[in-house]
Amino acid sequence: MAIAFSAGFAPTTFGTIESAQATTYQIQTRTSVRATQHLRSDTTFATPRVLSQSLTLSAYDLRGHDDNDVNARISLRYGTDLGLAERLRQDPLFDARWNDLSLDVAYVEWKPVDALELRAGRQWYRSSLGITDIDGVSVSWQDTGEGLSPFVAVAAGRDVQRGLTPWDPGAWDIQGLPPNESVVVDDPWHLMGAVRAGLTDNSRHRVEISAQQHRRPSGSANGAATTRRFGATATASPAEALTLTTTASFHSLIDHIDRARLDAAYRIGTGVASAGVDHRRPIFDSSSIFNLFGAQPSRSAYATYRRPIDALSTTVELRGWTRFYFDESAPLASRGDEQALGAALANHHRLTLVVPLDIHWQLSAQTLTGSSGGDQYLGTARLRGPGPVDGLFLTGRLTGLWAAPGHHRRDSGHATTAGLGAEVELGEVGQLSVNAESRFGSFTPANMALFALFELETWR
User: Fold this and answer.
1) What does the alpha-carbon distance between residue 126 and residue 114 come to, in Å, rounded to a whole number?
2) So what's the pLDDT on residue 343?
3) Measuring CA to CA, which residue among 59, 74, 49, 78 is closest to residue 20?
4) How many helices (H) and strands (E) does the chain have?
5) Is this model's pTM higher than 0.70 or not?
């Protein structure tokens, strides 16, 4: 069972408040509790009882000049597993699961003029290379004139994800490798410097180039190392109905392009057709999901057509895709030794049967050729409509998967998830939702989970 409660004051981000009469304070707090039980591979049961508490304090227009020139924010997060065995609570390998306190953001922001923004503290730095957590300083400037406006930003500081201290969200490798406590306490700062620049008209055209350098000091356990990344992204509309988007990045660690993508979208009457190609060469990182699932380079292509049919109050979407998996040493233009080919049909329909209903369903199929070939079929359906009480909405969802591996030593199997939910609006200040979900399949025991979420929102 999982239960979450949250109460806050006007969740928002800096820059969304256009006019304020005086200093405005925002408080957000979220408490969540999750209780689950599942069977381990050794036939014992895991029973985590996870408690998570976050608190965010924000202040806008601290000088009271009615222009939001000085703002500040701090966000803390605490988590613990009350079901963790007593013998594991002092084990450093489980440090992040027992009495774990993280500082997510803590910065002060100053806008001396509309075009210039300075920020100091723990913050998120965004660029075409993604989002990076840093302890440092960032300066950004954008011309506020008409038409294409230039912009530039620089940042420098400590890379939060790469340092190993008790305050870091990635303090321990998620594979659970044996830690060295002296490294965790005394690891030198991993420094990061970044710059991005470009042109934008804030609507149809944008181009950006960016660069980052990360340096691990020589005092680190693994010795000194410097890595560099370069990226570029562009969006353009050469015609009223056509939009093109492309992005690419280069990583010095592998001396190769680790990501490249090109997408095109074209309006045809009331419908939209889109297509794209993608190249991925993932980099192993101790804070990445690849610790669990592995990093396999791939190239893919897709095509989609989406069209609303107003007369039927419905929207239809058709998708097709192919993906090639290849060895890391293969050249960029080579074809992979395994290929996935798939297609999907989806529909979103609004229907009135006594009460208005939203119906969504999707069917997809994918086949994989090569040493690990096989077929996969997935279907999902969702129904949402008002309940017998004003402000009450009911939801039902069903998802089913059938997989037939190509290898003769692997059995075919299925998995199903069914859920029922209810949402009730609490005036204009909040919402309460409850969901029950059941999962069962060929290879795992059936289990059930309950979720509840309580949200409040107000201004002060």
Assistant:
1) 19
2) 95
3) 59
4) 2, 25
5) yes
